[in-house]
Design a protein that fits this description.
Layout (H helix, E strand, L loop, with lengths): L1 H24 L4 H12 L3 H9 L14 H8 L2 H10 L13 H9 L21 H22 L2
Helix pairs in contact: 1-7, 2-5, 3-5, 4-5
Amino acid sequence: MRKFITYLTIIAFCFACVSPAFAATRKLSPADFNYMYKIAADGDLASLMAASRRGLNLDATNKNGDSGVCVAIKKGDYKAYNTFIKAGAHEHPRCLNYISKSKLESFMESSNSVKYSEYPTSFQPRNQSSDWIVVGAVVGLVGFVVWLIKNATR
């Protein structure tokens, strides 16, 4: 019984630690990515932030490995870019490395692209590091339940 509980604890811990990493790196299906991009392109910040609170990863990529921020820069779509950034998407995703330096600089230097310093003081971009607090709480809870079961079976 003790071996079973030990293995169960290890499996629960691994699952709790690995699942957020998979969720954060997964690619969205083309339909989901296009829908997310359409919301941003329409400037619907409230819907994009609501979807983010429900678990949508604003930094998810399409089949080409581009996040919404990169697609917006490639298309020259300031409205979508600004909406993604205001909703809490990462301002410097990895896919920016595949955009020409001149295109990126001209886009970022434009007065149409929002800068973090221009946000209203009431605005706070989503802090995704708080997701690890949830993971820690789940791992602690699983450990506590396992400890209770282990002590109850003695």
